[in-house]
Task: inverse folding
């Protein structure tokens, strides 16, 4: 500790007159009394009042000397050297990425340690300094403008939270660079473990940052892959991968839950800095929608980041629909449509064989032909030759060149324009369970509906008796029909999302809103205002539930998973200054904050302590002025010199 005004120690000489006041003899007026028996205390005090009496222990004297000492120390302005940054504008970038949840430091986490560093910088800032706080998470955001208000900066730090995603350092450095304009003295302070993600260089107009490293160890074991795959009609298979980022081998156990029910587990040993693929060779026979994996360790394994010890996925079946197609006359237009539509695997049957294969299919397409017995799957029937228990055929009708699409919107007829269509002949048809979607003058020419858990669509005319296959409406109608039979996923996520990644959603045509439930139960509703939507609030790890709503009713629902895979946050090894310099490029990274020293004074604390002691001295003095009683002797021998002086002058 040093002193800015050491000459103030001369004020300690004031202690001399204080001591003399306690040593000088007091002059008192003599009064004759009848007896001194009741005045023994006065006699003792009289005996003590010799011209230069010996100092006795006196609480008031001790307090007064201590007050003097504290006041003198405050006047000398003592200080210590503390880490600080240069005065001026300071962009303080605080890492709030997932790796800052690691608990390899003395504080509760790396983020807590980073907050302590930030508070220290704010406490030691000079009045002419201005600091802007920037939180670097999956979205970099400035929390305060450049300000010298320490209270505002402390409030912003206290409200700051750590995220579960990577840090967007490119945006954070760009935000910091904006503050350098017009500043004579500008500094950037990065409090981080060095996980800069995709940041590769600094903006050209800013100085090299001051790097404050946080973190000590790289020991972490993480789930780095989890996925399911299955072919159409086959049970899914599971694949997982665990990575050891530390320098010690780890014995791990991986526990698998299907829809939150424990089903599988695998164990293994992972060498240092290695990966362990964990294939599950047996397919998962039981049905499930969601799958989660949890990582556990032996007691001697150091794992300083718990976020990546869990992972999630959803059943991801390859959306290849198996179609069984039979035509009694051969229909080139229909065959071309089935071949051109994506995701279809078409099997052509023999029209001479009225039986059906034993293996089930996702869709049966019959053109001018029907089997002996209709299958139990979805059906697309074109010009059926005879009636069945599901529908009845009537007499031929037509021709027709005017068609009316059903007033009720249907995804089957979306964007289908039939103004140029003409039809030579069609059959009257009766099916109470079906909804007429396209009407000619004398009857429907397209019906669709659901019965006995089957989706069935019927075109009661031969395609060769119309110009429909020559119109643009034909491929649109076939694509809509195939989507109606087997709706596509709202979102296509074969491998899930990484935390913080943007989700693109293609809502169905008739949807008016979407409802997304986050892992913590937070519900967000999005209005459908276009052909696609973007959802950015994927900052939580876990399973999300996406529901499509039409008039408040759920039309379709799908789950999707958000994991920490691919973000680089599981590799928690702190980045040395030399590697940070190489990553950012340019000149050397500025000296660490511990190498830049400033002054921290204590005179305000000393002055406050002196004021507190003065209050205590006043209380002690006034308590001793109380009138003595028979049960309490008079405290006159301990009276202060100020009281004795007042009595002697009376």
Result:
């Amino acid at each position: 500790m040093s002193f800015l005004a050491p000459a103030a120690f001369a004020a300690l000489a004031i202690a001399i007159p204080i001591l003399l006041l306690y040593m000088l003899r007091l002059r008192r007026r003599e009064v004759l009394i009848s007896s001194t028996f009741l005045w023994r205390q006065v006699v003792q005090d009289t005996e003590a009042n010799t011209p230069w009496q010996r100092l006795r222990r006196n609480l008031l004297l001790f307090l007064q000397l201590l007050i003097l000492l504290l006041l003198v120390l405050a006047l000398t302005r003592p200080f210590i050297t503390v880490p600080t940054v240069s005065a001026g504008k300071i962009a303080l970038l605080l890492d709030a990425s997932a790796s800052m949840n690691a608990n390899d430091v003395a504080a509760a986490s790396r983020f807590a340690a980073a907050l302590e560093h930030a508070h220290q910088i704010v406490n030691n800032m000079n009045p002419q300094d201005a600091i802007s706080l920037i939180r670097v998470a999956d979205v970099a955001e400035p929390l305060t403008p450049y300000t010298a208000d320490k209270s505002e900066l402390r409030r912003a730090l206290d409200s700051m939270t750590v995220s579960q995603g990577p840090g967007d350092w490119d945006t954070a450095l760009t935000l910091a660079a904006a503050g350098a304009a017009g500043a004579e003295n500008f500094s950037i302070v990065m409090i981080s473990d060095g996980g800069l993600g995709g940041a590769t260089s600094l903006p050209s107009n800013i100085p090299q940052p001051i790097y404050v490293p946080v973190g000590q160890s790289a020991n972490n074991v993480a789930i780095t892959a989890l996925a399911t795959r299955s072919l159409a009609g086959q049970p899914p298979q599971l694949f997982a991968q665990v990575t050891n980022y530390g320098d010690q081998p780890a014995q791990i156990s991986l526990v698998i839950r299907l829809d939150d029910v424990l089903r599988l587990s695998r164990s293994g040993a992972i060498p240092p800095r290695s990966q362990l693929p964990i294939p599950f060779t047996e397919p998962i026979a039981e049905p499930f929608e969601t799958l989660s994996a949890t990582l556990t360790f032996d007691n001697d394994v150091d794992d300083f980041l718990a976020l990546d010890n869990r992972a999630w996925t959803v059943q991801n079946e390859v959306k290849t629909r198996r179609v069984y197609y039979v035509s009694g006359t051969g229909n080139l237009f229909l065959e071309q449509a089935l071949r051109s539509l994506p995701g279809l695997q078409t099997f052509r049957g023999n029209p001479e064989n009225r039986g059906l294969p034993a293996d089930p299919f996702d869709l049966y397409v019959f053109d001018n032909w029907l089997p002996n017995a209709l299958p139990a799957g979805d059906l697309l029937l074109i010009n059926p030759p005879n009636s069945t228990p599901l529908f009845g055929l009537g007499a031929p009708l037509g021709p027709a060149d005017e068609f009316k699409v059903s007033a009720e919107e249907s995804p089957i007829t979306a964007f289908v324009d039939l103004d140029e269509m003409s039809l030579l002949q069609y059959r009257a048809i009766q099916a109470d369970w079906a909804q007429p979607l396209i009407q000619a003058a004398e009857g429907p020419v397209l019906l669709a509906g659901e019965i006995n858990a089957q989706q069935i669509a019927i075109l009661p005319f031969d395609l060769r008796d119309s110009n429909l296959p020559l119109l643009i409406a034909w491929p649109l109608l076939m694509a809509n029909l195939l989507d109606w039979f087997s709706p596509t996923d709202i979102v296509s996520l074969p491998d899930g999302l990484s935390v913080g990644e943007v989700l693109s959603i293609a809502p169905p045509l008739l949807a008016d809103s979407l409802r997304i439930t986050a892992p913590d139960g937070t519900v967000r509703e999005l209005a459908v205002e276009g052909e696609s939507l973007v959802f950015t609030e994927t900052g939580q790890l876990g399973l999300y539930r996406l529901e499509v709503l039409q008039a408040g009713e759920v039309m379709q629902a799908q789950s999707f998973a958000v994991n920490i895979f691919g973000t680089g946050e599981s590799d928690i090894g702190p980045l040395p200054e030399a590697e940070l310099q190489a990553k950012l490029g340019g000149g050397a990274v500025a000296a660490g904050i511990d190498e830049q020293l400033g002054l921290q004074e204590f005179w305000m604390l000393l002055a406050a302590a002196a004021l507190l002691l003065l209050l205590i001295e006043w209380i002690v003095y006034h308590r001793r002025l109380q009138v003595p009683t028979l049960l309490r002797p008079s405290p006159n021998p301990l009276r202060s010199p100020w009281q004795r002086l007042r009595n002697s002058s009376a």
About this structure: Residues 221-314 form a domain with the Immunoglobulin-like fold (CATH 2.60.40.10). The chain has eleven helices and 32 strands.
